[in-house]
């Protein structure tokens, strides 16, 4: 079913009547909810600090988490004390959790744990993002970055950033389930950022690319990705767009046996048992969940979001326009 939907969303196959009817119903519900906030029947909550919402309008990943890490590091360099909030999708815990470098992915969610380990800033996960935002402010944050929250209207966003996969865009432009869109076009997006396969620093469009050239193992070993050219490996990816990871390995000259899983897949040891004995390469996000069950010859590829100057300048300009919020 998932493969069929991907073919409809991105492959040009027309959705059937049932999917179009469900999409119309879904669109009506989304429209009513947005109208309730627009007319004041429901109210967005401010939390006493600027909130930067980083999200996308399509189902599935678009590289938001590495971008959040890059933006947090940029904010810190500009003199801000950022904190990150997230729903913590895929975690088994309930209620609010303060995430740090020692929190398990099961308790904090794979993406929040990765953010906490890479940035060392306050990170709180909670289905109630307003409570989560107040939680990171209590821990010293003076700016809140919401990882994946464009559709969460209850938390007021001062700056809204939409991340767009430059390769797939918005697919066929239809709403779920006839297309990949979670919501229709929005007029309140402040910055649209494109995730590109390669970075051109002279690109005037706000954009970023993921850069990773070193493989890491759980025992502390590391090897340059270029040293694996010509080798055959099992490649494991439980992210929003697994093909992007596989393509990056092939671009490095590695022969890939693909093992694609759904985003936020809850891995078990059997998922990583393969008939052909080869090294296993996976994303750092998947490693957050697989470290304890991975085979001995398993490696992960950390990536960093490298941003165009126009992206960072655009964010700084938006922050500077907020009342009384000059930094740097």
Concise synopsis of the structure shown:
With 328 residues, the protein is α/β, with parallel strands linked by helices. It has helices spanning 2-10, 17-38, 64-77, 105-108, 110-119, 129-138, 242-251, 284-290, 309-320, and strands spanning 51-55, 82-86, 97-99, 123-125, 143-147, 159-165, 191-195, 207-211, 214-217, 222-224, 232-237, 255-260, 280-283, 298-301, 304-307. Helix 8 links the parallel strand 13 (280-283) and strand 14 (298-301).
Q: Could you characterize the architecture of this molecule?
A:
The mean pLDDT is 94. With 328 residues, the chain is α/β, with parallel strands linked by helices. The chain has nine helices and 15 strands. The strands form two sheets. It has a nine-stranded mixed beta sheet with strand order 3-4-2-5-1-6-7-8-15, sandwiched between helices. Strands 10-9-14-13-11-12 form a six-stranded mixed beta sheet. The protein folds into two domains: 26-209 and 306-320, P-loop containing nucleotide triphosphate hydrolases (Rossmann fold), CATH 3.40.50.300; 213-302. 30% of the residues lie in helices and 21% in strands. The radius of gyration is 20 Å and the shape is globular.
